[in-house]
Amino acid sequence: MIQLPNDAAEAAAQSLDAAQSALTAGLTRIQVELKIPELKVQPIAKDFIAGFADYGDRLRVFFPDAGAAALARRDWGETAFAIRGINDVKADIQEQEELFIFVEPSAVEVREVEKLCEQAGDRPVIFLNPALEDVATIGIGYAGRQLRDRFLSQIESCYYIRPLDAAALFRCYPDDWQLWLEKGDSYEKIADFSERPSGEAIDNIFLSLNSGDASPGDGSPRPAKAGFLTNLQRFFNALSQ
């Protein structure tokens, strides 16, 4: 059973393993989400994408705009794969390309992203720290619901880690979603979910624990070190400088 990571290096390795496992299982629309406040993902993206270096020019990497793509090309140096902005003139999918990675696509670009995914067809697509579903941008009306049903709902979260108040929500494919709670000098798993839990579901678990109606966890998970989420955020922030 996959455990909550004890440090940033372990989280990075887990996210890559989860993505590769999901692709091997035949999933074609997956996302990796590191929900760390104020995280700048480009330095992390470089290491994550390096895990797919064997694809060579069969890999295409997309950034939200031409400026971000140019910055990546400058910082990463020469690469075997193309790096483009989502709206670049040369953004169209090429026949020889087999894998596509979108770095931090937002709801502003969601329709362009959907079109590129349509061009990709059955070829796999990975979204790294996406923010594609923003109610303020895509709306809550009929068009927004159609977009969710047609496209956004087809994306599977293969890796997810999000700090909560003295807790963490975690998922590493193929395992279920997990809720971990800080207990003394460690973190302990207190719940599993087959799907991403809603905020209400998480609140209900905390209320149940506070009222003494439930005992946390089953004792089997190895506790993660206390303070790891703080250390994780510090590490990512250092990378972002």
Description of the structure:
The chain has helices at residues 8-24, 42-50, 66-76, 110-120, 135-138, 142-150, 199-211, 228-240, and strands at 29-34, 59-63, 82-85, 99-103, 125-128, 156-164, 167-172, 177-183, 186-193, 224-225. The chain is an alpha/beta fold and 241 residues long. It folds into 2 domains: 28-160, Rossmann fold, CATH 3.40.50; 163-240, no CATH class. Strands 3-2-4-5-1-6-7-8-9-10 form a 10-stranded mixed beta sheet, with helices on both faces. α3 (66-76) links the parallel β2 (59-63) and β3 (82-85).
Strand and helix map with partners:
Layout: H1 8-24, E1 29-34, H2 42-50, E2 59-63, H3 66-76, E3 82-85, E4 99-103, H4 110-120, E5 125-128, H5 135-138, H6 142-150, E6 156-164, E7 167-172, E8 177-183, E9 186-193, H7 199-211, E10 224-225, H8 228-240
Parallel strand pairs: 1-5, 1-6, 2-3, 2-4, 4-5
Antiparallel strand pairs: 6-7, 7-8, 8-9, 9-10
What's a quick, concise take on this entry?
The chain is an alpha/beta fold and 241 residues long. The chain has helices spanning 8-24, 42-50, 66-76, 110-120, 135-138, 142-150, 199-211, 228-240, and strands at residues 29-34, 59-63, 82-85, 99-103, 125-128, 156-164, 167-172, 177-183, 186-193, 224-225.
